[in-house]
Amino acid sequence: MVSPELVVVMGGMTGPDERAIRGTHTRLLRTNGFISHEQAGSLQVEYLTAKGHRTLGYAYSVASAVELVARERHGGAARAASAFALPDLSVEKIDPRQPTTVARAVDRWTAPGSSVTAVCAHNDEIALMILECLYERGLRPGVDLSVIGVDDIPAARINLTTVRVDVDAWSRAVADGALSILLGNERPTLEGEYLEVVARSSA
Questions:
Q1: Rg for the chain (alpha carbons), in Å?
Q2: Which Gene3D superfamilies does the record associate with it (predicted)?
Q3: What are the pLDDT digits (tens) for 36-52?
């Protein structure tokens, strides 16, 4: 049976796993919660505002698997919009399993009379679906409607502006924290700035 000195918990633990560790010499380094989803939403709005956009859309994911993350990312974007004295975000609910929800949102944001010039998407998957809808309508991302995502998945690296985790900085912080615990030093804090905007042609 494996009995490690340290377990690094990246996304939470099941009850049975945690109970199995309790009472042993194994120590835990919990990393979840130190990368702020609210900040991701805020960075999207800050970036678009700096580009001169004033009326923003928001593509809100209704996928049950990301319910908490969706709420936090949207909350960060809404608070940033308020801080910049922008109009309320034009929120459209998106089900990634239903492409028609994306098409309907794009049609609303780009309809005659709409003042929306840029959209914050919950994640890159939804952002890329929005880009595809724009192409189908003969519209140009970054010109007719700017779009920014979150996560920097491989498919985003062609032309999608997005918010990503600075993996190098985060990895160093986790490694330093693990070493500190193993050496018996004071329990480390992992708080820091780990998110950054990657600018590409979509916004």
A1: 20
A2: 3.40.50.2300
A3: 889 999 999 999 999 99
Q: How many domains does the chain have?
A: 2
| Structural contact between residues 121 and 148, judged by C-beta atoms closer than 8 angstroms | yes
Q: What is the span of the domain harbouring residue 188?
A: 6-34+165-198
Q: What is the pTM of this model?
A: 0.80
Q: Bin 141: left if φ > 0, else alpha if -120 < ψ < 50, else beta.
A: beta
The two tokens of residue 20 are 């199995």
122 and 194 belong to one structural domain: no
What does the pLDDT read at residue 9? 64
Q: Is 111 found in the same domain as 23?
A: no
Query: What dihedral do alpha carbons 129, 131, 132, 136 form, nearest 10°?
Result: 140
**Of 105, 95, 92, whose CA–CA distance to 137 is shortest?**
105
What pLDDT does residue 187 have?
Answer: 65
190, 34 Cβ separation under 8 angstroms: yes
